[in-house]
Write a structure and sequence with these properties.
Length: 154
Protein backbone atom coordinates (compact mmCIF):
# COMPACT_ATOMS: atom_id res chain seq x y z
CA UNK A 1 0.00 0.00 0.00
CA UNK A 2 1.52 3.30 -1.03
CA UNK A 3 2.44 6.00 1.49
CA UNK A 4 -0.20 8.72 1.41
CA UNK A 5 -0.07 12.42 2.40
CA UNK A 6 -2.80 11.83 5.00
CA UNK A 7 -0.58 9.27 6.76
CA UNK A 8 2.24 11.81 6.81
CA UNK A 9 -0.01 14.48 8.33
CA UNK A 10 -1.26 12.03 10.97
CA UNK A 11 2.33 11.10 11.82
CA UNK A 12 3.28 14.79 12.12
CA UNK A 13 0.28 15.45 14.39
CA UNK A 14 1.26 12.53 16.60
CA UNK A 15 4.84 13.77 16.78
CA UNK A 16 3.58 17.28 17.67
CA UNK A 17 1.36 15.86 20.42
CA UNK A 18 4.23 13.83 21.86
CA UNK A 19 6.56 16.85 21.73
CA UNK A 20 3.96 19.06 23.44
CA UNK A 21 3.36 16.56 26.24
CA UNK A 22 7.12 15.99 26.70
CA UNK A 23 7.69 19.75 26.85
CA UNK A 24 4.94 20.12 29.46
CA UNK A 25 6.41 17.33 31.57
CA UNK A 26 9.87 18.92 31.40
CA UNK A 27 8.49 22.34 32.34
CA UNK A 28 6.60 20.82 35.25
CA UNK A 29 9.68 19.01 36.54
CA UNK A 30 11.75 22.20 36.29
CA UNK A 31 9.07 24.20 38.13
CA UNK A 32 8.96 21.63 40.91
CA UNK A 33 12.76 21.53 41.26
CA UNK A 34 12.95 25.33 41.42
CA UNK A 35 10.20 25.46 44.02
CA UNK A 36 11.88 22.73 46.08
CA UNK A 37 15.16 24.67 46.03
CA UNK A 38 13.38 27.85 47.17
CA UNK A 39 11.55 25.90 49.85
CA UNK A 40 14.78 24.43 51.21
CA UNK A 41 16.44 27.86 51.20
CA UNK A 42 13.59 29.37 53.21
CA UNK A 43 13.59 26.50 55.67
CA UNK A 44 17.33 26.95 56.22
CA UNK A 45 16.73 30.69 56.71
CA UNK A 46 14.02 29.80 59.21
CA UNK A 47 16.45 27.78 61.31
CA UNK A 48 19.10 30.50 61.13
CA UNK A 49 16.62 33.20 62.23
CA UNK A 50 15.45 31.07 65.13
CA UNK A 51 19.04 30.52 66.29
CA UNK A 52 19.76 34.24 65.94
CA UNK A 53 16.77 35.09 68.14
CA UNK A 54 17.98 32.80 70.92
CA UNK A 55 21.55 34.08 70.55
CA UNK A 56 20.37 37.68 70.82
CA UNK A 57 18.42 36.77 73.93
CA UNK A 58 21.50 35.16 75.52
CA UNK A 59 23.66 38.18 74.59
CA UNK A 60 21.18 40.56 76.23
CA UNK A 61 21.02 38.36 79.33
CA UNK A 62 24.83 38.58 79.71
CA UNK A 63 24.72 42.33 79.13
CA UNK A 64 22.02 42.66 81.79
CA UNK A 65 24.11 40.76 84.33
CA UNK A 66 27.11 43.00 83.69
CA UNK A 67 25.03 46.18 83.84
CA UNK A 68 23.24 45.22 87.06
CA UNK A 69 26.49 44.14 88.70
CA UNK A 70 28.02 47.54 87.92
CA UNK A 71 24.96 49.30 89.28
CA UNK A 72 25.22 47.33 92.53
CA UNK A 73 28.90 48.22 92.80
CA UNK A 74 28.25 51.93 92.23
CA UNK A 75 25.55 52.01 94.88
CA UNK A 76 27.83 50.21 97.34
CA UNK A 77 30.76 52.58 96.67
CA UNK A 78 28.63 55.70 97.04
CA UNK A 79 27.51 54.74 100.52
CA UNK A 80 23.84 55.11 99.63
CA UNK A 81 21.53 52.45 100.98
CA UNK A 82 20.89 50.02 98.14
CA UNK A 83 17.83 48.36 99.59
CA UNK A 84 15.40 51.31 99.52
CA UNK A 85 14.50 54.31 97.39
CA UNK A 86 15.84 55.45 94.04
CA UNK A 87 18.70 52.93 93.68
CA UNK A 88 16.30 50.00 94.07
CA UNK A 89 13.78 51.55 91.67
CA UNK A 90 16.48 52.20 89.11
CA UNK A 91 17.87 48.70 89.53
CA UNK A 92 14.44 47.07 89.13
CA UNK A 93 13.51 49.26 86.15
CA UNK A 94 16.76 48.40 84.40
CA UNK A 95 16.31 44.70 85.07
CA UNK A 96 12.70 44.81 83.83
CA UNK A 97 13.71 46.61 80.63
CA UNK A 98 16.42 44.04 79.93
CA UNK A 99 13.90 41.25 80.53
CA UNK A 100 11.57 42.82 77.96
CA UNK A 101 14.43 43.19 75.49
CA UNK A 102 15.41 39.53 75.95
CA UNK A 103 11.86 38.38 75.37
CA UNK A 104 11.49 40.63 72.31
CA UNK A 105 14.74 39.29 70.82
CA UNK A 106 13.57 35.69 71.23
CA UNK A 107 10.07 36.41 69.90
CA UNK A 108 11.41 38.35 66.92
CA UNK A 109 13.57 35.35 66.06
CA UNK A 110 10.62 32.98 66.41
CA UNK A 111 8.29 35.15 64.32
CA UNK A 112 10.87 35.66 61.57
CA UNK A 113 11.60 31.94 61.62
CA UNK A 114 7.92 31.05 61.28
CA UNK A 115 7.48 33.57 58.47
CA UNK A 116 10.41 32.08 56.54
CA UNK A 117 9.12 28.57 57.22
CA UNK A 118 5.67 29.49 55.87
CA UNK A 119 7.24 31.01 52.76
CA UNK A 120 9.20 27.79 52.25
CA UNK A 121 6.02 25.72 52.48
CA UNK A 122 4.32 28.05 50.00
CA UNK A 123 7.13 27.54 47.50
CA UNK A 124 6.75 23.78 47.91
CA UNK A 125 3.03 24.04 47.19
CA UNK A 126 3.71 26.34 44.24
CA UNK A 127 6.01 23.70 42.75
CA UNK A 128 3.29 21.09 42.91
CA UNK A 129 0.82 23.52 41.34
CA UNK A 130 3.38 24.32 38.65
CA UNK A 131 3.63 20.65 37.77
CA UNK A 132 -0.16 20.35 37.61
CA UNK A 133 -0.45 23.53 35.52
CA UNK A 134 2.21 22.39 33.10
CA UNK A 135 0.54 18.99 32.78
CA UNK A 136 -2.85 20.57 32.09
CA UNK A 137 -1.28 22.99 29.62
CA UNK A 138 0.50 20.16 27.88
CA UNK A 139 -2.60 18.02 27.62
CA UNK A 140 -4.75 20.91 26.41
CA UNK A 141 -2.04 21.89 23.93
CA UNK A 142 -1.84 18.34 22.70
CA UNK A 143 -5.63 18.16 22.44
CA UNK A 144 -5.84 21.38 20.46
CA UNK A 145 -3.03 20.16 18.19
CA UNK A 146 -4.92 16.94 17.62
CA UNK A 147 -8.18 18.78 16.93
CA UNK A 148 -6.47 21.20 14.56
CA UNK A 149 -4.63 18.34 12.93
CA UNK A 150 -7.86 16.38 12.53
CA UNK A 151 -9.51 19.47 11.07
CA UNK A 152 -6.71 19.75 8.51
CA UNK A 153 -7.46 16.24 7.31
CA UNK A 154 -11.10 16.85 6.55
Amino acid sequence: MPFVIDDLIIALVIIAVIATVASAITAGIQAEEAADAQSKAYKARSKALSKKGYADEARLRRLKQIRLRKMEEQVGISGVRGDVGTPVDLFLDTAAQFNKDELNARLNGIFASEEANAAGKNFGRAGKLGVAGAAIGGVSGAASSTVLGAGALS
